[in-house]
Amino acid sequence: MEFEEYASARGQELVRLGFTISGDYQRAEDLAQIALMQAFRSWRKVQRADDPHTYVRRILVNSYLSMTRRRSFTEAPAADLDPDRTVPDPATDIVNSDDLWRALATLSARERVVLVLRYYQDLDDRTIADLLGIKPSSVRSVASRALASLRKARQSHRVDERLP
């Protein structure tokens, strides 16, 4: 598969992943663009990977995590997001709950990424561990802590009942 075909076929999926992780449509577009730009620079290497899409998703996730480590990074509260700029996707009805976004915003970047990859992207622990460069047991630990935080938020703020 040539790069142009890949970008055309998977570009919007990368934007949706970026939006789900960051909660910001403009940041999601930036993350997808960064991931595609880096993939283009080393496309031969990406093509040789066992799963090129996993390789590009890892670039996107690592870019987001790197972005959150910068001092200038600030996350906009869900109330400040422009609802007309969301990515059209059937799953947005589930994850677009304002309370859920607020609860997710309280998590660390790593916790949020693990939950998004596990529940939105439906990836297994081993794949998530490979994407993040950690052990599968660490993925389970991070997910467990994140879910406990969300449950606590649900109890104290009556967050959406669809939380696992």
UniProtKB/TrEMBL annotation:
<keyword id="KW-0805">Transcription regulation</keyword>
<feature type="domain" description="RNA polymerase sigma factor 70 region 4 type 2">
    <location>
        <begin position="98"/>
        <end position="150"/>
    </location>
</feature>
<dbReference type="GO" id="GO:0016987">
    <property type="term" value="F:sigma factor activity"/>
</dbReference>
<dbReference type="InterPro" id="IPR013325">
    <property type="entry name" value="RNA_pol_sigma_r2"/>
</dbReference>
<dbReference type="InterPro" id="IPR013324">
    <property type="entry name" value="RNA_pol_sigma_r3/r4-like"/>
</dbReference>
<dbReference type="InterPro" id="IPR014325">
    <property type="entry name" value="RNA_pol_sigma-E_actinobac"/>
</dbReference>
<dbReference type="InterPro" id="IPR039425">
    <property type="entry name" value="RNA_pol_sigma-70-like"/>
</dbReference>
<dbReference type="GO" id="GO:0003677">
    <property type="term" value="F:DNA binding"/>
</dbReference>
<dbReference type="Pfam" id="PF08281">
    <property type="entry name" value="Sigma70_r4_2"/>
</dbReference>
<keyword id="KW-0731">Sigma factor</keyword>
<dbReference type="GO" id="GO:0006352">
    <property type="term" value="P:DNA-templated transcription initiation"/>
</dbReference>
<keyword id="KW-0804">Transcription</keyword>
<feature type="domain" description="RNA polymerase sigma-70 region 2">
    <location>
        <begin position="12"/>
        <end position="72"/>
    </location>
</feature>
<dbReference type="InterPro" id="IPR014284">
    <property type="entry name" value="RNA_pol_sigma-70_dom"/>
</dbReference>
<comment type="similarity">
    <text>Belongs to the sigma-70 factor family. ECF subfamily.</text>
</comment>
<keyword id="KW-0238">DNA-binding</keyword>
<dbReference type="InterPro" id="IPR036388">
    <property type="entry name" value="WH-like_DNA-bd_sf"/>
</dbReference>
<protein>
    <submittedName>
        <fullName>RNA polymerase, sigma-24 subunit, ECF subfamily</fullName>
    </submittedName>
</protein>
<dbReference type="InterPro" id="IPR007627">
    <property type="entry name" value="RNA_pol_sigma70_r2"/>
</dbReference>
<dbReference type="Pfam" id="PF04542">
    <property type="entry name" value="Sigma70_r2"/>
</dbReference>
<dbReference type="InterPro" id="IPR013249">
    <property type="entry name" value="RNA_pol_sigma70_r4_t2"/>
</dbReference>
